[in-house]
Amino acid sequence: xxxxxxxxxxxxPLKSTALGxxxxxxxxxxxxxxxxxxSSVAYGTEQILIVLSTISIxxxxxxxxxxxxxxxxxxxxxxxxxxxxxxxxxxxxAYIVSKENLGEKAGLIAGGSLLVDYILTVAVSxxxxxxxxxxxxPTLHQHTVLIACILVVFITILNLRGLTESATILxxxxxxxxxxxxLLIGVGAYKILTGNVxxxxxxxxxxxxxxxxxxxxxLRAFASGCSALTGVEAIxxxxxxxxxxxxxxxxxxxxxxxxxxxxxxxxxxFLAYYYGIAxxxxxxxxxxxxxxxxxxxxxxxxxxxxxxxxLVLAANTGYSAFPLLAFSLAKDKYMPRMFTIRGxxxxxxxxxxxxxxxxxxxxxxxxGKTEHLIPLYAVGVFIPFTLSQTGMIVKWFRERPAxxxxxxxxNLVGALITLTVLLIFFITKxxxxxxxxxxxxxxxxxxxxxxxxYEAVGExxxxxxxxxxxxxxxxxxxxxVAGITKVVENSINYAKSLTDQIFAVYVSFxxxxxxxxxxxxxxxxxxxxxxxxxxxxxxxxxxxxxFIDTVEHKASENNYRVTVLIPQFVTKKSWxxxxxxxxxxxxxTYLIFKKKVIVATLPYxxxx
Length: 608
What we know:
The protein is of the alpha/beta class and 608 residues long. Helix content is 65%, strand content 7%. The protein contains 22 helices and 5 strands.
């Protein structure tokens, strides 16, 4: 039943030879890898206005030059990440660039930041999508967290079905959103040019003096607006997912994404300024622009619907990039090996499920409020932005290929701007992002501890020609018995087929029981030595463990190994297990930690 349900949810398993069919073309890659960046159009402008609103509505004209600064940074990042794609065609993005050029610690900081950022990508995108839904249907406000969690589960299952299938399904809503926002911008611009704008619309002219405005506040607004740039790095992490030639297709996708993002962000910011839109707790900026442009008709709901869908589907960028980054870290022994294993549908399903679970926990903790998450979200991505640009500067300076000065200059500009934005975030929003200062070093420490463990395990498993293995001369089998039954008979017969050094061990709780059992055993199995152990406190483990230690000590002197063969009956129906004593499970769990004892289980299957 479970297997059938799994097949229903994620589909039939794919052969390993079908991996090439799971690669993405530019059309599909742009949809699933750019959805995060494109969706930031829905809240990037709003984040700028939230900061400016602390002064007054008159200050909203500053959103236009601030948006221009954000677009300049976007251009620098696109140029820089295009160089990274061609320099590191196997993917890995900021993690690989930082690790190879700045050292292990820098690489782990970049990798850890991006892992957290992708979790935040899912949480922020789903929360923002839920906010768009509740803006259109206010009665759903009280169910925000539940709706967000259900959407995470849906996206997780969709990604478990495989890269190509999820990309095919998600491509159309993403492009529908792009068409919807271009329609909104186009109609809005037409109304402005023709003077067909509501007389209630008021905005301060650009350059109007604003009392109380400070450089600190403008920098804070700029840093908030830079949240629109999250997701730019995802394409460089996911190069292996592209069809060949992968680097060339990835670079084209990156440029297309940057162009679309620039046009959409600039258009929404201008309309928000011209309409004099103020951020509201109950209604998003895009919702207000759409209502002002179209009224509350079917076009308004079309804009809101596509916005909600893209915000939800923006989470798919995280699902596309997180498993690949986790794979790179796991391959380098900084994360558990389970993240290197492909699932039934050839995706890294452990990474996908882990991302979904972490995102749900984050949504519950933040109560689905994006304003609590976006500052952390932006900091998480600007740390690897800065490290990757700095790493490329070191690479060009060290290798000095043809045209290296121009390449170095591009990365230098990118590094300086991203470092500036990062410092602005820490200075202006330290109360919201201080957690990164504590959490990120802990993640790096965890990576290093995992790596140390794997290195130690590798050292212990490695074969050395000059170190001969200790010979095993024979085997002593200990069979714990609880009575004279077919289960015990089956175990004793199996032990006899392996060796004649057998101890049947019976733990008795009183003398009379011990004597009766010895008499029965002598008649039933006279050629198998029975050892009876007294337990005054009704513990099976304690006397059994002492006996095993004694036998193991004597056996090791003659290069013998001790095997504890545990009889285990298997019921026909799983629920029958709760009707039986699970002492064999307890013994096996305890003995598995004994270094020089082999634990074996011999199942006996019941027919009814």
